[in-house]
Write a structure and sequence with these properties.
By secondary structure, this protein is of the alpha/beta class. It has 13 helices and 23 strands. Flavin-adenine dinucleotide binds next to helix 2, helix 3 and helix 7.
Length: about 450
Amino acid sequence: MKEVDAIIIGTGQGGMPLAGALAGEGQEVVVFERSRVGGSCLNYGCTPSKTFLAAAHAAGRARAAADLGVRVTVDVDFPAIMRRVRKTRDSWSEGAIKRIIDAPATLIMAEGSFTADGGVQGGGEELSAPLVVINTGTSPFVPPVPGLGGTPYLTDRNFWDITELPSTTLVLGGGYIGLELGQGLARLGSKVHIIDMQERVMSIESPDVSQVIHEALERDGVSFHLGVKAGSVEHSNGTFKLALEGGDTLQGDALFVATGRKPNTAALNAEEAGIELDRRGFIEVDDEFETSHTGVYAIGDVIGQPAFTHVSWEDYRRLYGILHGEDRKKDDRVLGYAMYTEPQLGRAGLSLEQALEQGFDAQEARMDIKDMSRAIEWGQDLGFFQMVIDKDTGLILGATLVGYEAGELVHVFLDLIEAGATWELLESAQHINPTYAEYLPSVARMFKD
Ligand SMILES: Cc1cc2nc3c(=O)[nH]c(=O)nc-3n(C[C@H](O)[C@H](O)[C@H](O)COP(=O)(O)OP(=O)(O)OC[C@H]3O[C@@H](n4cnc5c(N)ncnc54)[C@H](O)[C@@H]3O)c2cc1C
């Protein structure tokens, strides 16, 4: 068994930069990747989805311009859109390969799995190292709906390879992936049905968020079937028939499954090496990302935390610091994320519900977009800004922004929360007119009353 300094399994958003940083110090680093280099974000997630949405939202905005007195005929060239998506994805993935090789680290294009003594094998190699980092991410979870297996259903793995716009798309799952792609397809001209067993879309967020996003997508022509389970699937002559429990049957020429994620741990042989998994199969780590096997760490989606690129990337920075003796921890950071529907969702810190659950004496202030001058001038009426504070201390605990480019604006709150700011600080700031950001101090001002 060959001994190296570090082994990284999976080229996710944390593993790749970590390989680069360790190799840059002169360490001998070996990286295993079983699929496309760059992981979910570059190949199946953020990069292709946001490149796709750029086209879809351009079409949506062009149509919406009619309300401003500008009439545009929208002519969608779907094959061209998907060519651009694949070209962008491929260039990022090729760049990722180059970065690993230039680091210089050794890239083994094979599935890595643990040997009983904590070594790693794959691609005909068997290696050991004092440092092993698992960054194997997640894959789409496909529910056991009778008849679904064996049909040509789509997930984020193969969606980017389609070349024709489905005339009717059935989207199973009303979380952020189903909503983003559902709205995107609708804006490009597909008739979209979103089906979810929950009573509302985006059910992990507050009902206000669900309601606005629901209305926005309905304006794009999306139909919702909520509070219903998929009963069975049939596929013949290019048509999917999706029977819903309760009686209705929907038909479409594409079925996109976006019903959650499962950890990529089955192939790791982790338990054999004494690496504990939780009951859902995610890897258990301590505060410093170390697994139950000394010297084996795990970062990114595979540890069952909020599954985002920036989380995995920040894991790398923290783990790198920890390995160099810094006092860093896994969880002492503010979580934020965005959903790239139109309007966007920008989230930072705690929602009101989360803050109350955590025992804060929490209070919210909320303002609707339709009452903001920028929105009135620009013809946007859907959305709201909500911030949550701790009544006892005045500290800002969280924010939920739904509106135009809210994913950008919410960074104001991420930074305020990181800095331990109170609502009084935001209230006293002078923001620029006429922007959406101008209304952030106005929302804070509501706590005065
Ligand atoms: C459609 C979609 C849209 C998304 N949009 C966003 C977004 O807008 N913003 C955002 O922050 N996040 C987004 N995400 C989530 C984001 O892609 C992930 O959170 C991010 O990629 C971090 O993942 P990771 O670093 O944990 O691992 P991944 O990126 O999942 O990479 C893991 C890698 O490990 C490899 N692997 C697995 N097992 C093995 C093994 N045994 N041996 C060798 N290699 C192995 C896999 O092939 C993969 O390449 C999106 C995801 C999807 C699916």
